[in-house]
Amino acid sequence: MLRIVKYPHPALRYESVPVQRIDDSLRDQVRAMFDLMYEHQGIGLAANQVALPFRFFVLNVSGDATRRDEELVLINPEIVKRHSSVEEEEGCLSFPGLYAPVRRARKIKVRAFDLNAQPIELDADDLLSRAIQHETDHLSGRLFIDLLDKRALATVGPRIQEYVEAFRRSQAQGEIASDAALTNDLDALSKRLGDLAVR
Ligand code: CO
Predict the structure, then answer these.
(1) Fewest beta carbons less than 10 Å away: which of 15, 116, 125, 142?
(2) What distance in angstroms lies between residue 25's CA and the mean position of ligand 1's atoms?
(3) Alpha helices of 45-149 — where are they, by DSSP H?
(4) Which are the catalytic amino acids?
């Protein structure tokens, strides 16, 4: 049973490991992630946002669960080109309700593998480009709040502190494990090198 983790869960700062095997258990995880993403009105979800420390994410920039043709799964993605830059509002399912302006490349080229283990190369601009950059950052433990300028950070800083306090309260009440225990789980999973079947 997958759940979206919220900041500052250690999975969000975890350096995810490459997927080694694309199999039915990975396909099951992907389907479950799409369902969670739609349920929370998102357009993208990285594996470490459901505490799976592997380098893949799901996307549907239409945000429409009926538009399966718009679904994208990028496995072991690498952004190989970035062109010009643009600032837009951005949010993240691990920071529900938080939005802030983030500057990112306007156009990118990304290489990855799809669910059939086929290499894909994609040129993206606008929202798709932004979403791919946001999700690829997640896989290396980078968050959109890391990219805010001083003014944006001053605006959303108190809100970020509220996420931290809520998370620590849940830990104190035993609803969420300690950071050390959560990190141990991530280490154990990542050592299985992409074998998502064992969980
Ligand atoms: Co996010």
Answers:
(1) 116
(2) 23
(3) 126-139
(4) 135
